[in-house]
Amino acid sequence: MNRKRILVVDDNEVVVKALSIKLKSAGYDALQATDGSGAVSAARTEKPDLIILDINFPPDVGHGGGVPWDGFLIIEWLHRIDEAKKTPIIVITGGEPAKYKDRSLQAGAVAFFQKPINNEELLATIEKALGKPS
């Protein structure tokens, strides 16, 4: 059976590593990116089954390749490329939910999580997004 591939995109390497460990222990292959250009590149080359995406990126990280990336711009770009057009995206953020939740869902995210993330809820949401029976 093929393991589902999940791309984790966050500027905080601790968050990326922690989520990757949780995903691997749950039976998924975890791919990693720490900025927008890395996320788009990984989506094109690795073709993940699902993407977990932070919204906030500091300016020094967010300007990879001269582009002022944030999670919303990353979603926009992912929806433009054939390899990721239909890939479910789960947004995670340490920012205010009132500021980001509705905008994330309107941009096309299938779910929204406030950090710190409840791992059991996240895994259940991933399974649902991937069409697995819970």
- For the terminal residues, how far apart are their CA atoms? 17 Å
Number of distinct helices: 6
Series of secondary-structure elements, N-terminal to C-terminal: EHEHEHHEHEH
Provide the CATH top-level class.
Answer: Alpha Beta
Anisotropy-based shape: globular
The proportion of strand residues reads: 15-25%
Radius of gyration, taken over Cα atoms and rounded to an integer in Å:
13 Å
Looking at the structure, the CATH topology is: Rossmann fold
Portion of residues in helices?
40-55%
Describe this structure in words.
The chain is an alpha/beta fold and 134 residues long. The protein has one domain (5-129): Rossmann fold, CATH 3.40.50. The chain has six helices and five strands; from the N terminus they run βαβαβααβαβα. The protein has helices at 13-25, 36-46, 59-62, 71-80, 97-107, 119-129; strands spanning 5-9, 29-33, 50-54, 89-93, 111-114. α5 (97-107) links the parallel β4 and β5. The longest helix is centred in the N-terminal third of the chain and has 13 residues, at 13-25. The mean pLDDT is 91.
Topology, element by element:
Layout: E1 5-9, H1 13-25, E2 29-33, H2 36-46, E3 50-54, H3 59-62, H4 71-80, E4 89-93, H5 97-107, E5 111-114, H6 119-129
Parallel strand pairs: 1-2, 1-3, 3-4, 4-5
Helix pairs in contact: 2-4
Describe the structure in brief:
The chain is built from six helices and five strands.
Notable characteristics:
alpha/beta; 134 residues; 5 strands; 5-stranded parallel β-sheet; Rossmann fold; 18% strand; 6 helices
